[in-house]
Amino acid sequence: MPPSQEPRPSLGDQPAPAQQPRSPIQAIDRTVSLLTEIAAAGPAGVPLKILADRVGLHASTGRTLLSALAIHGLVGQIDETRRYVLGPRFFELNRTYELQYDLGIVAAPVLRDLWERTDETVHLSTLREGRRVDLSVLVSRQLLNVNPSNMRSPSDPTGALRRTAAGKALLSGATTGELQALLNLPAGEMQRLAAELDGVRRSGYATNFEEEAAGVCGVAAPVRDGAGRVVAAICVGYPAVRRTPAHETLLVDAATAAASKLSTVLGHSATPVRGDSW
């Protein structure tokens, strides 16, 4: 048959990609290689024999690893052909991964609603490499306002996290070991911080009353993803001169409701502590 008339191989019969880098753990390397081959095969899937041959495994070893991956939803099989394809867990993980980088876009409608409701400065913050980063900032339209972009740079010491409402909300998702590794505090200070963060977890929000800067107050609530992890904080910052019990209650309810709304978008289903009527 002339070359131009030769049948094209299916996706499952494509040549193997370049060799993957190797780690000290062989089982991990084999698993990654299997997943890479399955991903390359696309929706048509790939049979066990071809998959095992490409990765250099006995069929029985490949079947054992694939069965374990299937338990966790990382791979599946097409019923009619028994070819392997990526499982639904990958799509969930990919969605979480994308949200880490597009969270500001996803949160935009929620932040806008909060900004209009409170008429104060609203910002969305996250932790990156142990430091707080503001992903989005909507500065209050009022003449006297708080602008976090003018108050700090991303290179501020990690210790400043415990003096801001957003920082406390972000830290509320950390374990004691993670807090100690991040902040490296003396035992007494760590105990006081742990007690304060326990309060944040119980109430669903954190506050800052001129702890970081004179004349600046804030209320923040943690944002959680589908696994319940704190991935961000929604904060409302306002001048101390506008602090009254009524205004503070309004901001707490609005911030916690906004955080709950964004958490729901990210797949979290827990009932909010405050502000659930919004």
From TrEMBL:
Gene Ontology biological process terms from the UniProt entry: negative regulation of DNA-templated transcription
Pfam families attached to this UniProt entry: IclR_C (PF01614)
Gene3D superfamilies membership: 3.30.450.40, Winged helix-like DNA-binding domain superfamily/Winged helix DNA-binding domain (1.10.10.10)
Region (Disordered): 1-23
Occurrences of domain HTH iclR-type (ranges): 25-88
Keywords from the UniProt entry: DNA-binding, Transcription, Transcription regulation
A GO molecular-function descriptor: DNA binding
Domain IclR-ED: 89-268
Domain of life: Bacteria
PANTHER family xrefs: HELIX-TURN-HELIX TRANSCRIPTIONAL REGULATOR, ICLR FAMILY, TRANSCRIPTIONAL REGULATORY PROTEIN
Protein name (record): Transcriptional regulator, IclR family
The organism of origin for this protein: Tessaracoccus oleiagri
Lineage: Bacteria, Bacillati, Actinomycetota, Actinomycetes, Propionibacteriales
